[in-house]
TrEMBL record:
Subunit structure: Monomer.
Protein keywords: Hydrolase, Kinase, Nucleotide-binding, Transferase
Function text: Catalyzes the reversible transfer of the terminal phosphate group between ATP and AMP. Plays an important role in cellular energy homeostasis and in adenine nucleotide metabolism.
The family this protein is said to belong to: Belongs to the adenylate kinase family.
Residue ranges annotated for the Adenylate kinase active site lid domain, each copy included: 160-195
Record keyword Nucleotide-binding present: yes
Reaction catalysed by this enzyme: AMP + ATP = 2 ADP
Pfam families: ADK, ADK_lid
Name of the featured protein: adenylate kinase
Enzyme Commission designation: 2.7.4.3
Length: 247
C-alpha cells in the first residue's frame, strides 16, 4: 500500500519540482561528504550560517528538538518511547536522542552528511554519538566553534526586536526599523522575546560555557575543531567557514 501511495504522490508533484530536485541531486553528487557539528552560544550566528552550509554542501540539518517532535508525531518506535518519557516529565535519554539521529541520518536528504546543532551538549553525548557513527563506519569531520565575546553577544541579543506575526526581526543598532518599536511593513508594534534580556542571556551563557567547553576540549583532542571569529560580519564568517570546510 505504501508503494502505491508514493507513486501517486509522485504523480501529483509538478514536473518542475521533480526536475529541480533531480538537478539538485546531480549537483550534490560531486560534493564531498561532511558530518559537522555547530557549537556556539545564543546569538553567535549559527542560525545564519547553518542554511548556507546546508545548501552549499547538500547536507541535512539535524536539530534534535525538531527531530524528537517529528519522531513522536510519526509514532516511530523511538518516538513512542520518547513520548512516554516526556509524558512522565522526564528528560529523554542520550541513547534515545542518538537513536533518533541515527534514524534521521538514513533519509535520502542526509546522504551527503549532516549538520548537528544543539547536540552534543555534554562529553557523554559526544562519546555516544561517536560510538554510533563508528558502527556506521563514519565520524565527525569538523566541529565549527563559533567563538565570540560575551559582551558582543549582549549587544547583539538585547537589541533584537521582532514582529511576532511575521517573524521579521530588527536590531536597534544593526538593522533598526524606520520608526523605533514599529514594524516597517504593517506599522504594528514590535516585541522583544522573553529570553532576549541581559539577565536571561547571562544565565544561558554561564550554562553554555560550563557545559560546552568540555565538549570542545573533547573534540580538540581529535583534531577536528575549527574556531571561527563569530564577531565578524556574516559574510566574512561565511568566507571563513568555506575556507575551513574546503581544507
Amino acid at each position: 500500500m505504501a508503494a502505491t501511495a508514493t507513486t501517486t504522490s509522485l504523480e501529483d508533484v509538478p514536473s518542475l519540482d521533480i526536475m529541480t530536485e533531480l538537478l539538485r541531486r546531480f549537483k550534490c553528487s560531486s560534493k564531498p561528504d561532511k558530518r559537522l557539528i555547530l557549537i556556539g552560544p545564543p546569538g553567535s550566528g549559527k542560525g545564519t550560517q547553518s542554511p548556507i552550509i546546508k545548501d552549499e554542501y547538500c547536507l541535512c540539518h539535524l536539530a534534535t528538538g525538531d527531530m524528537l517532535r517529528a519522531a513522536v508525531a510519526a509514532k516511530t518506535p523511538l518516538g513512542i518511547k520518547a513520548k512516554e518519557t516526556m509524558e512522565k516529565g522526564e528528560l529523554v535519554s542520550d541513547d534515545l536522542v542518538v537513536g533518533i539521529i541515527d534514524e534521521a541520518m538514513k533519509k535520502p536528504s542526509c546522504q551527503k552528511g549532516f549538520i548537528l546543532d544543539g547536540f552534543p551538549r555534554t562529553v557523554e553525548q559526544a562519546q555516544k554519538l561517536d560510538e554510533m557513527l563508528q558502527k556506521q563506519g563514519t565520524k565527525i569531520d569538523k566541529v565549527l566553534d563559533f567563538a565570540i565575546d560575551d559582551s558582543i553577544l549582549e549587544e547583539r541579543i538585547t537589541g533584537r526586536w521582532i514582529h511576532a506575526a511575521s517573524g521579521r526581526s530588527y536590531h536597534t543598532k544593526f538593522a533598526p526599523p524606520k520608526v523605533p518599536g514599529i514594524d516597517d511593513v504593517t506599522g504594528e508594534p514590535l516585541m522583544q522575546r522573553k529570553d532576549d534580556t541581559a539577565e536571561v542571556l547571562k544565565s544561558r551563557l554561564q550554562a553554555f560555557h560550563k557545559q560546552t567547553k568540555p565538549v570542545i576540549d573533547y573534540y580538540n583532542t581529535k583534531g577536528v575543531v575549527a574556531t571561527l571569529p563569530a564577531e565578524k560580519p556574516p559574510k566574512e564568517v561565511t568566507a571563513e567557514v568555506q575556507k575551513v570546510l574546503s581544507s
